[in-house]
């Protein structure tokens, strides 16, 4: 799938869509939030472009969400040369705020690399919102 | 309960094989006039109990997709029970969440160390232990209490 790379300056948001993707005690995001789901993250890990997103409205579109973290696109690329952040051509018009982090393996294919990269993504994540929203 | 004059003898600690993370503390106290008394109290690791409670909360999630599969749930409980026997009261509190294919992810963090027990959602999915400490990391595909305890001791050791 062709994806147009985002600018390195772009900030992206990763939504916390599962209970306990952030730590129960510290509320810090966990590596669990950066493990690709083969049923949902076929093309890559979904993120939203901060500058194009009204965060509260976006998080309210999910049946349940637990907040979001921000990540700097350039810092994601610095983690590993295989990692990139881009926008699918078909998203550019329909969902201009949506982007994907590509280059993450599925944990069933390469557990070690999936966990290491998830750890590095946690390190560069910044807590942005921890509001529970339900529809 | 023991009564009498402290100090007690050095406590003798024995694991109770039928109850993970529960130890029996046997204490003998010197009493007056040369007699002695022996007490026995079972103590279960509170951290282990909290961890199991968190898993049970996930198991009662409304949406099936948010609940761990029976396979993952069973795997986690077995490994955690074995680990609790290895670590007794040193069993640390874990954070839990549901992963892809309704697998169960159990995470321990301390300082720059982290251990993740990943129980696959089905036999077709991989189960493993991942641990890291500073710049070092390790993956273990033999998932049992003995190995998990080793990873916890290594990654969560005090600096």
Summed up:
Helices cover about 25% and strands about 25% of the residues of chain A.
Protein architecture, described:
The complex is a heterodimer of chains A (135) and B (159). Chain A is an alpha+beta fold. Chain A is built from four helices and nine strands, in the order βββαββαβαβαββ. In chain A, strands 1-6-7-3-2-5-8 form a seven-stranded antiparallel β-sheet. A two-stranded antiparallel ribbon of chain A has the order 4-9. The longest helix of chain A is centred in the C-terminal third of the chain and has 14 residues, at 111-124. Chain A is globular. Chain B is an alpha+beta fold. Chain B folds into two domains: 12-44, no CATH class; 46-155, no CATH class. In chain B, the strands form two sheets. In chain B, strands 4-5-6-7-8 form a five-stranded antiparallel β-sheet. In chain B, α1 runs antiparallel to α2 (70-87) and α2 packs across α3 (145-155). Chain B is globular, with a radius of gyration of 19 Å. Classes of the chains: A alpha+beta (135), B alpha+beta (159). At the A-B interface, α4 of A face β4, β5, β6 and β7 of B.
């Amino acid at each position: 799938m062709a994806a147009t790379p985002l600018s390195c300056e772009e900030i992206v948001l990763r939504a916390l869509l599962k209970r306990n993707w952030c730590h129960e005690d510290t509320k810090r995001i966990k590596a669990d939030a950066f493990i690709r789901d083969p049923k949902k993250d076929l093309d890559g890990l979904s993120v939203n472009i901060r500058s194009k997103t009204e965060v509260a409205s976006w998080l309210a579109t999910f049946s349940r969400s637990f907040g979001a973290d921000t990540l700097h696109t350039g810092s994601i690329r610095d983690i590993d040369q295989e990692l990139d952040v881009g926008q699918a051509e078909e998203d550019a018009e329909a969902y201009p705020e949506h982007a994907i982090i590509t280059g993450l393996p599925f944990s069933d294919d390469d557990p070690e690399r999936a966990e290491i990269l998830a750890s590095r993504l946690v390190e560069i994540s910044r807590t942005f919102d921890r509001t529970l929203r339900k529809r | 309960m023991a009564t009498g004059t402290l100090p007690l003898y050095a406590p003798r600690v024995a694991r109770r094989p039928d109850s993970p993370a529960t130890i029996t503390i046997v204490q003998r106290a010197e009493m007056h006039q040369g007699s002695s008394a022996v007490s026995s109290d079972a103590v279960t690791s509170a951290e282990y109990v909290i961890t199991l409670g968190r898993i049970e909360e996930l198991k009662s999630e409304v949406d099936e997709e948010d609940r761990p599969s029976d396979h993952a749930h069973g795997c986690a409980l077995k490994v955690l029970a074995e680990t609790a026997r290895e670590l007794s009261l040193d069993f640390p509190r874990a954070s839990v969440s549901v992963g892809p294919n309704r697998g169960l992810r159990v995470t321990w963090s301390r300082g720059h160390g982290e251990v993740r027990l990943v129980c696959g959602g089905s036999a077709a999915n991989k189960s493993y232990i991942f641990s890291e400490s500073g710049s070092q990391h390790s993956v273990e595909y033999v998932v049992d209490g003995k190995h998990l305890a080793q990873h916890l001791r290594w990654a969560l050791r005090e600096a």
